[in-house]
């Protein structure tokens, strides 16, 4: 009787209306979320001259590789991609590890300066020295034209530290006490107990840092623009876009120009911008599915405990 009554309530008209409305709403959210990326995908693979006519939405009308050929014909792209990959890998590992160490330190009740350090750290989230003092500081530290200017200045993220600290504070105190009873020091406890148990929070922070490192180009412009060997993919793509805008504005057509001396391949700033978006976002899209379950769990704990 109970099962039949529950089934009857589930099959009632209000329940069906709610389910249908929920499905329609979620489909609308998925469409709104995916359409911009699909539109960029279509424009990147569509003939640039044909794209000027408009009407390109989620699928190319005239398939071509010309837009990608135009970008990858730049010799600097490959070395810049290597630099971007290195700064993303090294920057993510060092930032997550150092941020986790700070988070573990200020999560300990026995650390008398934990509140003071937390307040100072949070203060930096709202106030900064500004662009010029920051540049002068980097110059005094002799990190101009250096690869480490990508790593050291952002090695600690305050928001990331709060997320990890909140996760650590949610761990059972008995685990830490048992480690101390067995003679483990703070660093041993951190490495062998805390880090393995905070994988969801660490994966969440790693995703944040990796996206920032991969997409960053302004620090290259400020500190390493004169050092081509330290240029990143995003900075090179930005320069290609500026070149395409300049070339397009100098042509009679106004919105298209020929790439290469043969004049066969035609691209536009719009097609180049779409191609750049796909190239820049593809690595993150490939990594995100592997971190999604940790990302959701880490953000949930951080939001509840923070």
Automatic annotation (TrEMBL):
Entry superkingdom: Bacteria
UniProt GO BP: transmembrane transport
GO cellular component: plasma membrane
InterPro entries tied to this protein: MetI-like, MetI-like_sf
Membrane topology: Multi-pass membrane protein
Subcellular location: Cell membrane
Residue ranges of every copy of the ABC transmembrane type-1 domain listed in the record: 81-288
Spans traversing the lipid bilayer: 20-38, 77-104, 116-135, 147-168, 189-214, 272-291
Keywords, in A-Z order: Cell membrane, Membrane, Transmembrane, Transmembrane helix, Transport
Family label: Belongs to the binding-protein-dependent transport system permease family.
Protein name: Putative aldouronate transport system permease protein
Species the sequence originates in: Paenibacillus catalpae
